[in-house]
Amino acid sequence: MSTPPIIIIRKKGGHGGHHGGAWKVAYADFVTAMMALFIVLWLLSSSQKVQQAVGGYFRDPDGTAKKVGTGLAGSGENLQLGKTDMSKLKEQLQQSIQKMNDLERLKKNIAMTVTSEGLRIELLESEKGTFFDSGSSALNQTGQEMLQLLAAELGKVPNRVSVEGHTDSKPFNGKGSYSNWELSSDRANAARRLMQQSGLRGDQVSQVRGFADQRLRNPKDAFDPSNRRVSIIVQYITATPDEPESVGHDAKEAGAEKTAGPSAKSSPENSATKK
Known about the structure:
The protein is α+β, with helices and mostly antiparallel strands and 275 residues long. It has eight helices and five strands, in the order H-H-H-H-H-E-E-H-E-H-E-E-H.
C-alpha cells in the first residue's frame, strides 16, 4: 500500500480583521436621545416659571437668560416678569382670588388689566363701600383679606409696585380742609402699609400716589362709585430705577381719559358724604 501524503496546516497568528467604529456613533446617538428624553420629562414635571426660564434661555442665551435664568435655582419663584409674563401673573392672581369665600359678591369690584405700565389691579368701591369704611381710609375686613392675598402673591416676584388712590367727584363732606386729595392719598397709604406687613418687601413699593378725582375710571359719570378705588400696579422690569415714569400713563387704558368738569364738582346736591 502506498503511504498517504502528509498534509501540514499552518495557522496564521494575530487578531481578526478591523470591524470599524460605526457602533460607537450609534451608541452616542442613543445616549443623546435618552438625555433629551429625560430633559423633556423633567421640564414637563417642573413649574410653569421654570419652563419659561428654560425657554427664555434657548431663545436668547445672551439676553433673556440674564433676566430669567435665576428662576432655575429652586422653584423658579424669582422669575422676573416682563411684558410677556404679565398675563400669566394676572391668571395666577385670579386663581388665588377664586379661593375667597365671598368671591361671587366681589366679582364686579375687582378688575385686572395688562397696560403699558404693567399689570393694573383695581379694587373698586360700591355705593355702600366694599374695601374701605364709608368716608374713611380705614380698611374693612374684606379689604384687609384682599390686600393680604395680593401681597402674599406679589411678594414672590421681583417687580416693583406702585399704589394709587382715587375718588369720585363728590366733594368730601368732612371737617376742616380734609378733601378728596387727602382721602385718596390716605387710602393708598393704608393699602401700602398692610401689604408691606403681609408679604410685600420693604423696597418693593416705588410710589404711593393720590389722584383724588383727576383719573376717573368712568369719565362719563363722575359720581360713579367705581371711580372710588385703590389701584396696585405691578411695573415692568425693563425701566431702570432712575428712569422717570409717566404718572398715570395708562389712565386712558383704565377708562380715565377725561375728568369731570367744574360744574359737576360744584353742584350743591352732590355734597353727600364720601363712600
